[in-house]
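Entry:
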Amino acid sequence: MFQKYSLRFIHIIKPHCYFLIIILAFIFLLYFSILDNKLISDENTILVPQMSYQNTFSSFRFSPLAPYIFVSSYLIFGLSPLPLRIVSIFLHCAVSCLVYFLFFQLFKKKQISFFSALLFAIHPLATESVTWFAGTQYVLYTMFFLLSFLCYLRSRVFTHMKTNYYFWFSVVFYILAQLASEKAVVLVLVFLLYELIFGKIRERYRELVIFACISFCWTAIHLTAIGVRSKSLQTDLFIGGGFQNPLTQIPYAITFYVQQFLLPINLSLYQGYSMAYLDYGIRLVIFLCLVIGLYFLYIKSKNYFFLGMLIFITLIPTLTPLKISSTVAERYIYIGMIGFSGISSLFYYYVLQNKKIREIGIIIGIVVIIFLSIRTIIRNNDWNDEYSFWSNTVSTVPYNSQVRINFGGILFKQGKLQEAEEQFITSIKLDPNNPEAYQNLGYLYLVTGNIDRSINYYSTCINIYPNNWKPYNDLAVVYITKKDFKTALEYVQKGLKISPHSDSLYSVLGLIYLDTNDKKSAQESFEKALYLNPHNERAKIWLTKIGKN
């Protein structure tokens, strides 16, 4: 049995091996440099456990595949990011090869398949999902979706669903896509769209119902977690609830991704979402032109229409008006790049069919490949370490308040306190209502001994945004240094009302009890902190000291 399927696999791969080797060679050449990259941004909190494994998995309890990879890497290899970098590269290789076979299955032309897969593989828009292993879930669910869709396309030649192994493989891979990311719930629409355009939906409705039921169940499950997600963003990350206006959000997002695919210059982990009237007007006109163009493509070319709709469908989960995620992010378009790459490659293929412009077309194609490859290498170098990453990000989006805060945090870690202060102050100038900038300045002044200014900035932070526990925690520390334990206790209690499961607050509470000679209560507080987070070093140290005494 194994030999039979091995021979069949070789038979499928062999006619395409030269194209696949070229694609894989490009990926390894472009991404080899990331193997030495340090931990960046959220990678620190993913790989370095800041909370118990139980809490880690509860955060991803319905999409656990990526967290399993992270925790397994930590348990086996410790804090080294190298294994996860290797996994990310190999996953991108797998996805790029699957993109090749998808287009070959759809169009039966090796040239189109090769152009599409190569463009997808080398495009710098993919770097955020590949180089930054915090984006692994996007690569992972794209891989499982492609496996599911390819098996589904293969299953269409069989009539009996019960004995159609390709179909059931498709179902299994579709479930794995759901386990990889909540954003996979909408992918049933791709199956439906394919049948509406190319197939016979009446003959395939039973299969589509199965995929729809899987998506419906996962959607219902994820909806129960939206409240938890929203509260977590408010209490931990200063991100308030509310809604975005879809009339501005959707035109901006769609035109942003088109712009970045065509000219990937200003790439950044953070992108601004503030538009002047003129900018919005231009984007709205472009968006309406894209919608009208998509309608005409439906009439003239079903292939282009399918790929265009593929882009939009995969973006639906990120276009929610709820403020529970970034408005735009390069990682969101990773799976949508399949549509962009396919449309570009179809157009390029038909250009090359014209003998009069074939030579010019070949030259343009080579220039595009060189440009995208160089841009990907440069972008990967941006991710080398935190300082280079955030300094480049500041250069790319200098008017983003959050970027200034993050860069200031890196400068603070490096002991460059004056430069960090300048970044935090600039952040406040860019956005006077950004509470995190005030909190960071409060902490900076606490460290430098300027207690009055520290209290002033922490208080301003709370006035702007009272729903986050962190400034209460830090203000309690400030008042501990002033020996004002009563006020410190009041702030801890206020913080615990907001976040009753904060191990940091319980550690500070233990310090208050310790300073007021209540060792029993102090011990209970430190034990509670360790229960919530077994990696709380402060609680471990103080419990050891209490035990010795």
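Residues 2-382 form one domain.
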